[in-house]
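Students often ask why we bother predicting the structure of a whole assembly rather than each chain alone. The short answer is interfaces. A chain on its own may look different once its partners are present, and contacts between molecules only exist in the joint model. In this exercise we take two input lines together and write out one structure for the complete complex. Read the inputs first and try to guess which parts will touch.
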Amino acid sequence: MEALFRPVIDIIEYVGKLALMLVKTLYFFLRLAIDIPLTIFHMSNMGVNSIPIAILVVGFTGMIMSVQIMEQAVRFGTIAPVGGGMAFVMVRELGPVLTAVVLAGRVGSAIASEIGTMKVSEQVDALRSLATNPIQYLVVPRMAALIIMIPVVCILSTLVGIMASFWVANFMYGVEWEMFYSYIPRFVSVYDITAMMIKSSVFAVTISLIGCVEGMYTEGGAFGVGQATTRSVVVSIVAIFALNFLLTFILF
Amino acid sequence: MIVTKNLKVKYGRTTIIEGLDFSVKEGEIVSLMGGSGCGKSTLLRAIMRLISITEGEIYIEGRRTDNISEARMNEVRKKMGMVFQEGALFDSMNVSENVAFALRRHTRMKEKEIQEIVMERLEAVGLAGSEKKMPDELSGGMQRRVGVARALALSPKILLYDEPTTGLDPVLTATVVELILKMRERYGTTSVVVTHDIGAAARVSDRVAMMHRGRILEEGTMRDLEESKDEYIKHFLNAMRYETLSGRG
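Now the answer. The structure tokens for the assembled complex follow.
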């Protein structure tokens, strides 16, 4: 009977770990007990260094989308609104989701493996023995850095995605910038951009929280670190898509 | 200085420490000996509150610490230091940054003062000149000595050593033993040393406590234990002597 309910119990236990870690982290955020130099280091290491890959992924996606949509638009003779449509899809969905997925792979895995290695080599215990709270030292600066940097990376990659889709529309179908741009303000509002930032921030908390929980609960040496790293990426990506579905309903 | 009363620690259904009463006086060096899994390292971790205890009470300098908040425990931890079996040095920091870690986090000292203390601690453990080395450039013995220097940074009153000589050759073992004695002489620290090494325990300790199945079987000087009538203690000491003579210790 226990084996039957084991997966459900495991999920409840996992959500409990996430909730507990979130509450403990929020405690330090509310007290403004944030290590600024360490946060700046992680902003550079995890955020700035992720810009090229995020730009590439969202940029190529914009180009592919443009090829597919332009082909259909030409068939139906409605090229003019394509720019607006592309920007609409990029801002509302593709920009924040693809950026978050890229960062879950690049940054979430790094968080889980770094903290996991520290856990199995007793460095987390050493932190506590030196009167340092591991959540304040390891989790808070990483989460703060991602909350600041993921929206920034998202804006940049979304802009590049829109520009890349214009470049394809111009190169293959001769669409001029004035025509491409003219429909963007009709399709994309300031609220859409705000919603994109909200989505990115929620994804930032999700990626950092899952990476940190996986790291902090790592057991079993190098094998355990590998397992935690893989799990952090898989769980983060699933959580990003599930939360995106939920946020799309709430925000739009 | 350190007192535990009726201490119990369980991991799941397994009892690791069973109703342990243990105390260490100020300035004393006490060694904890016993077979693997008898609860020696668990006792150290419970004293430092790196693990939760199931029952009982722990007092550090007369203050109960098992039921206080983590923030208050951190104030107590500033008066304590722990040396881990494998050093547990922060591998992203060099030797100097490892030793300076607690000073940078818990004091308002200027960088010049911090560097002076780092140099003094590294000199005390015989590692002056290694400040810029990364942990993976150091031997096992050197890592443990950096661990001691790091634990000493805030001038703690209590030092807990978790198997400081395990896996070291006789020369490095002698170096670590000398270091533990030197720390008391120089800083007046009270120490608890978990070890399997009879020679090291005899050399370093004022008192040795022999543990078995989560309890202290007997305590006294090493000579007292060697004259013990307890079958387990006789068997353990003979086995450790055999291991040392056959070069496995």
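Check your guess against this: The radius of gyration of chain A is 21 Å.
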